[in-house]
Amino acid sequence: MRLPFYGSSTEIYHPVSRKWTRAASDPHLRTSASAVPLPDDTVLVIDGYNGHYLQTNEIFDPVRNRWKKITSDPVPRGGGEASLLANGDVFVTGGFNDTGYLDSSEIFLSRSGLWRLLHPDPVPRWASVAVTLNDGNVLVVGGYNAQTLGLTERYDPGSDTWKTMAPDPVPRWGASVVLLPSGNVLVIDGYHGKYLKTSEIYSPLKNTWTCVASDPIPREKAIAVLLSDGTVLVEGGLNPGGFTSAGEIYNPRTDKWTNLPTPSLPIP
To answer: Which residue has the higher pLDDT, 236 or 6?
Structure first.
C-alpha cells in the first residue's frame, strides 16, 4: 500500500467564483480517510491512517468553521469507503488495517451517533468507491486485495444483502465516483499498473457500462463532486508527477472536460 503523506489542511471550493478559501484544519493528520456531506450541510470525516490505522471521526461545520469529535468507528481502517444513505445515515465498508484487507461494513446512525454492524462485503478490499443510488441501494466498485478489482456489487440496506453486478470494464483502485442527475454513475481515474484517466458511466437500470471522454489528467484518489448545475468537479489526486492540485469540470451532457485555474493558496 502506498500511503505517502499525512495532511490536515482543509479548503472550501466556491463554484460560482471558481476560487478556494482555507478552512480550519482537521484535528488529525491523516491520509486515506473518507468524507461524506451530511443533510445539514456539515461533513463527516471517518478513519484514515497516520502511521496507525484510525477509528476517530469528526464532523466539520463549514458555517462555524470548526470540527467536533463524535463516536469512534468500531473498526480502525484506512482506505475504506463511505456513502450517505437516503435516511441520512452513513454506510461504511472495506479498507485496510493491521489485520489485512477488510470486508467489515457498518452504518453510522446520524441521529443517535451510534454504529451498527452489517453483513460484510463478500470480497474484502481496500480503495474501492461507493455511491448511493436513487433506489437507496449502494453501488461498490473496484478496489484492491492483492489484485486490482473490477468487481461491482450492490448493497441493499433494507435487506442487509449484497448482489454482484456487471463488472467495471476497467479494473482499478483509488478511483472517484459520482451519482449523476440521470441516476447513472460516473467512475473516473484510479490506478492499475499505471495512473488512469479512463471514465465510464454505469447504468443501474440496464446493469451496463459505457465508456465516456477521458479525464485530461491521469490520477488516483482525486475528489469528485456533483455541482448544482449537473456538472462534476474533479480536483487533486496523485499521479506520476506527485500530488496534483489540477482541477477540471466534467459536463455529462456534452461529454467534455474543462480545465480550472490552479488554486493559489498559501502553504501552511
So the answer is: 236
